[in-house]
Amino acid sequence: MVQTDPGSGFQTRNIDAGTVPQLVSALDLQEANSGVRRLREWAFEALAPGAGERVLDIGAGTGSGTRALAAVVGASGSALGIEPNAGLRSVAEERAAASRSTARFMDGDALSLPLSAGTVDAVWCERVLQHLAEPERAVAEMARVLRPGGRVALLDTDWATTVLHPGDPDIMSALTSGALTSAANPYSGRRLVGQLTAAGFVIDDRGSQSLLQDHQSVAWPLIRMLGEAAVRRGRLTESQRDSAYKALSEAAEHGGLHMSVTMFGVVAHKAR
Known about the structure:
Layout: H1 20-32, H2 34-47, E1 54-58, H3 64-73, E2 78-82, H4 86-98, E3 104-106, E4 120-126, H5 135-145, E5 146-165, H6 169-176, H7 188-198, E6 201-212, H8 220-232, H9 238-253, E7 258-270
């Protein structure tokens, strides 16, 4: 995904269709993560979508969240997933049809939702705001489309919480700093409460989960991406980078690797 617009990478003109298979694979892996599942379960229960409600999933991806919402609101309600990536939207539609879900999907931008004001009972938005340079505009759009008393669940990553161990703490800190360049809004997780409050929402609950890498393996594609970025920016020398790789590899051989990032969730309602 190439972000050419200062406000949103989630626009049709900013999407690279060639990355769809990799995106689908990445989303499926993320959904299998136990931390993601636990945070989703907590947020879903706190949001409490009910039969007959109109619910909106912003940044629906492969549609798993939209399908879960559709199953709860039932035939008397509606679950709509907004997904600007045509490839992902096609996958979402295929999976919904295969599971006989009533979930529907359409193109749209988080900064300009294709819905009238006050027409939605509940909004789900997961790992979208981290990609937006102007996330406040997206939160304002959620407030616009929600009815008074309508609820919202925001889940997002805070990339500054990335931890790698063992190794020299300063070197590992420089290595993980590369994660801060991977998103337009890398501190998204810690900003959710303030953004919701500023948009007129009342906070109902907050939660978090640490997303852990397997302690017996090394996510080398990600580690090398961070390491090369740190060298390019002058944060690490090649020698320091290689020493970090060696420490992580040796730790994994003995089941002693720690790699994690924290994801936060906030559930709120629109003031009446």
